[in-house]
Design a protein that fits this description.
Layout lengths: L2 H8 L13 E4 L5 E3 L2 H6 L5 H9 L2 H7 L1 H8 L9 H13 L4 E2 L1
Parallel strand pairs: 1-3
Antiparallel strand pairs: 1-2
């Protein structure tokens, strides 16, 4: 049905890609949260109507905070391997977002 779209979509340059806002996160231990992907969400039963309502009540600031670990990796490729920033960021997200974000 959409075979005619494969070639044009495949030729779209992606060097300007930047991660978007996140509205669902996963626990990675010790109160740390990281963005959840589709597989994590599906493995934990998908999204409920309550989840969707919660996602809709997030502020833009909260959704951007939830995505920082992915956004930093997009914009600071040369620095992402330095230090323990991912662990610290996951802890900060746990403290700031645990009561607001959908966790799967």
């Amino acid at each position: 049905m959409y075979h005619h779209m494969v070639k044009p979509i495949g030729s779209v340059p992606t060097d300007g890609y930047l991660s978007g806002m996140q509205t669902v996160m996963s626990h990675v231990g010790h109160g740390r949260l990281v963005p959840a992907g589709p597989l994590e969400i599906m493995a934990r039963g998908g999204l409920t109507a309550d989840d969707l309502n919660s996602m809709g009540s997030l502020t833009v600031k909260e959704a951007h905070l939830a995505s920082l670990s992915e956004t930093v990796s997009d914009i600071a490729v040369d620095r992402v391997e330095i230090g323990e920033w991912k662990t610290l960021l996951a802890s900060e997200c746990g403290q700031l977002l645990a009561e607001r974000i959908v966790i799967k």
